[in-house]
UniProtKB/TrEMBL annotation:
Keywords: Isomerase. It is an enzyme of class 5 (isomerase). Its EC number is 5.4.99.5. The keyword Isomerase applies. The keyword Glycoprotein does not apply. This is chorismate mutase. One of its GO terms (molecular function) is chorismate mutase activity. GO terms for biological process: chorismate metabolic process; salicylic acid biosynthetic process. The lineage of its organism: Bacteria, Pseudomonadati, Pseudomonadota, Alphaproteobacteria, Hyphomicrobiales. SUPFAM superfamilies: Chorismate mutase II. It comes from Mesorhizobium hawassense. InterPro entries: Chorismate_II_sf (IPR036263), Chorismate_mutase-related (IPR051331), CM_bact (IPR010951), CM_dom_sf (IPR036979), CM_II_prokaryot (IPR002701).
Length: 108
């Protein structure tokens, strides 16, 4: 009987953790959506003013800053850097598309 209660308690704790994980995942998606909304606006601004889609200096500053934030938060800085690099590549891809579309609009 005690074993069944322990298992039921463990399942209840697990359900609580999973509910928190689900909430965090939802928040991450909303935060990424907001981040990409802002970076899209940056891409439009860059395209309108003939600025390059990528800014390696800014990207390196962000990587350095986020690696330190990860360390401070007890998150693996290598993981944080890989994640940021993935996001940066996607942002640059969007900026290149915006620039190409802006060039096509000016040519038309």
């Amino acid at each position: 009987m005690n074993e069944e209660k322990d298992m039921a308690d463990a399942r209840a704790i697990l359900a609580g953790y999973r509910a928190s994980i689900d909430n965090i995942d939802a928040a991450l998606i909303h935060m990424l959506a907001e981040r990409f909304r802002c970076t899209k606006a940056v891409g439009v601004l860059k395209a309108e003013h003939g600025l390059p889609p990528a800014d390696p200096s800014r990207e390196q500053q962000q990587i350095t800053r986020l690696r330190q934030l990860a360390k401070d938060a007890n998150l693996d800085p290598d993981f944080a850097e890989k994640f940021l690099n993935f996001v940066i590549r996607e942002v640059i891809r969007h900026h290149e598309q915006i620039a190409a579309n802006n060039g096509a609009a000016k040519a038309g």
